[in-house]
Fold:
Amino acid sequence: MEQQLLPPDYCMLKQQMQELANYPFARVGSIGCSICSRQIYSFSVGNCDERVLLAGAFHGMEWITTMILLRFAHRLCESVRDHTLLAGEDVTALLGNRGVCIIPCVNPDGVAISLCNPEKRWQANARGVDINHNFNAGWCELRELEIESGITGPGPTRFGGTCPESEPETAAMTRLCRRHCFCQALAFHSQGEVIYYDFGEHTPPCSLEMAQRLADAAGYQVEKPEGLAVGGGFKDWFIDCMRRPAFTVEVGMGQNPLPIEQFEPIYEQLEPMLVLALHL
Ligand SMILES: [Zn+2]
Structure:
């Protein structure tokens, strides 16, 4: 009988990371701790010198992105162990050229709050700061827009904090990126089936074409963000600071949190895109 799918609460996340650590070629660790002392786990496999970064669950209600990245990590490991193809590609060869680092859950406290209290519609971290408004990229301009929209203090969504990188989850991500020179980064959110690729003058010229290829692989659209979706986000910071391509991938379609029944079809649609991201 097939195992019943469950939302990725912290216990399950921990257990899945332990399972991944059993693969001798995989590296499992932590890039830091959340406000409530939960680990922000990392998984790496393949070439350490050149790596792609994939990160999910910046937002509490978007825990389906954690499930997607955990599934992808397991599928990568199985393909390497069994010498099988993944989405038609020889991933062992791909990973020899370029490795991957996966942060399945950037905001474990937010996910915990969202899973325990769905009625709160919680996206932020444990002290009400929206991690994806807390990065140091157009933060001041975004702060003004937040205030204009009536978001003046901590809450379930879109409060960017008192200063950029004020939150440990944000700082863990920027520290990781400063330490390792990732060639590109994909940040996973839900929902909309769109990919965002640009932020200001430092957007690499190749980003649009890359976004289009990623989008084509999943049947998604490429778009430019507007209003409160501009600035303060991880992909914005990565583009601005690392001067390398970064993308926000909005998975699935519907209302957050996306129902768990949508996980399998969403994953199936995304797997070719995830594999493409390894060698784009
Ligand atoms: Zn999001």
The radius of gyration is 17 Å.
